[in-house]
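hey
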C-alpha cells in the first residue's frame, strides 16, 4: 500500500522574500514498488492541484524562484513540487526513462486522493510535464512548460542549444566525467566567497542581472545543493535522459498546453520553445523579449500560474 508520511513539522520560512511564506509540508510518498518520492506541498488548502517538476540539474526547491507564495491562495492552487528519482529526497530508480515519470506521478496522485491535476515544468522539467500530458490523458487538466528543453533530435535544435548540447551529451555518453563536473559545481556553489562567481559562470545576460538579487542567488545555490544531496548520480542520469530519445512526439500531446519562454534565454535558447509551440496542437505560447532562463520565472511567476489556472 502506498504511504504518505510527513518528514517534518509545518514550517514557515522567513529568511528571504523568495522563500515560501505559506506553510509547506516536506513529505515522503512510498510507491508500491518500495521507492519513495519526496515533495514539498505549498498552500495545502488549495482546491486546484498542480504537480511542479524542477529543472536539471536541480530539485523541488527551485519552485522558490517563482516567488508566488502569496498568489497561491488567490488562485486556489495547491502546488506539489516533486523530486525526481535520485534527486533531493526521492529514492533512486535504476535504468529509468522519461516515460517512467508519469507512472510515478499517477501513483503519487492516487496516494493523495487526486483524480485530476495540472502539471508544470521549468527547464529540464518541461519534457516531464509534456510526458504526463501525453501518457495520463484527461487526468491532466493542463500542462505548463517554461524555459523548456525540446527533443534534441529535432532538426536544428541540437545546434541551437550550443555549449549546453555538449554538456547534455557528455552526461549521456560519459557519465563519470559529468558526475565529476556536477560535484565541482556543487562545491563551488556551497562556498560563500565562490558562489557568486560560480553562478555567474553558469548563467549569462539577463540571468546574471537576476542573480544580483540575493534571494535568487540563494535559491539557485540551494537547488544545486539539493540536486546533489545523494552524491550526484541522480542528477547525471536526469541530464542523460533529457539528451536521449523522449519516447513520444510532443505533437501527440492532446491536453491544453501553455508555454512561456524568454527570447534572451541562453541556457535553453528560444528556438526550443518556438519548436514546441509549433508542433503541440493548440499550444498557447508567450515569448518574452527581454527575459532569460532564471529571470522569466523570477519576474513572471504570477503570470505563468495565472495562465495555467485559466486553462
Amino acid at each position: 500500500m502506498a504511504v504518505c508520511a510527513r518528514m517534518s513539522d509545518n514550517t514557515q520560512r522567513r529568511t528571504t522574500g523568495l522563500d515560501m511564506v505559506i506553510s509547506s509540508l516536506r513529505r515522503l510518498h512510498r510507491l508500491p514498488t518500495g521507492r519513495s518520492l519526496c515533495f514539498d506541498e505549498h498552500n495545502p488548502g488549495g482546491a486546484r492541484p498542480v504537480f511542479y517538476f524542477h529543472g536539471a540539474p536541480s530539485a523541488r526547491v527551485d519552485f522558490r524562484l517563482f516567488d508566488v507564495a502569496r498568489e497561491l491562495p488567490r488562485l486556489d492552487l495547491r502546488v506539489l513540487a516533486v523530486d525526481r528519482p535520485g534527486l533531493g529526497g526521492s529514492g533512486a530508480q535504476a535504468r529509468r526513462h522519461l516515460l517512467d515519470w508519469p507512472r510515478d506521478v499517477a501513483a503519487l496522485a492516487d496516494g493523495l486522493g487526486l483524480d485530476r491535476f495540472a502539471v508544470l515544468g521549468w527547464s529540464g522539467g518541461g519534457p516531464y510535464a509534456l510526458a504526463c500530458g501525453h501518457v495520463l490523458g484527461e487526468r491532466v487538466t493542463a500542462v505548463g512548460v517554461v524555459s523548456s528543453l525540446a527533443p534534441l533530435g529535432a532538426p536544428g535544435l541540437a545546434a541551437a542549444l550550443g555549449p549546453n548540447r555538449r554538456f547534455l551529451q557528455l552526461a549521456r555518453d560519459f557519465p563519470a566525467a559529468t558526475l565529476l563536473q556536477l560535484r565541482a559545481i556543487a562545491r563551488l556553489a556551497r562556498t560563500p566567497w565562490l558562489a557568486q562567481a560560480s553562478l555567474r559562470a553558469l548563467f549569462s545576460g539577463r540571468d546574471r542581472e537576476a542573480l544580483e538579487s540575493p534571494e535568487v542567488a540563494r535559491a539557485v545555490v540551494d537547488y544545486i545543493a539539493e540536486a546533489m544531496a545523494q552524491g550526484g548520480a541522480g542528477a547525471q542520469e536526469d541530464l542523460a535522459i533529457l539528451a536521449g530519445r523522449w519516447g513520444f512526439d510532443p505533437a501527440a500531446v492532446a491536453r491544453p498546453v501553455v508555454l512561456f519562454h524568454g527570447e534572451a534565454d541562453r541556457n535553453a535558447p528560444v528556438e526550443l520553445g518556438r519548436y514546441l509551440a509549433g508542433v503541440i496542437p493548440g499550444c498557447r505560447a508567450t515569448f518574452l523579449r527581454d527575459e532569460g532562463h532564471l529571470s522569466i520565472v523570477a519576474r513572471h511567476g504570477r503570470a505563468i500560474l495565472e495562465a495555467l489556472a485559466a486553462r
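The radius of gyration is 18 Å. DSSP finds twelve helices and nine strands in the chain.
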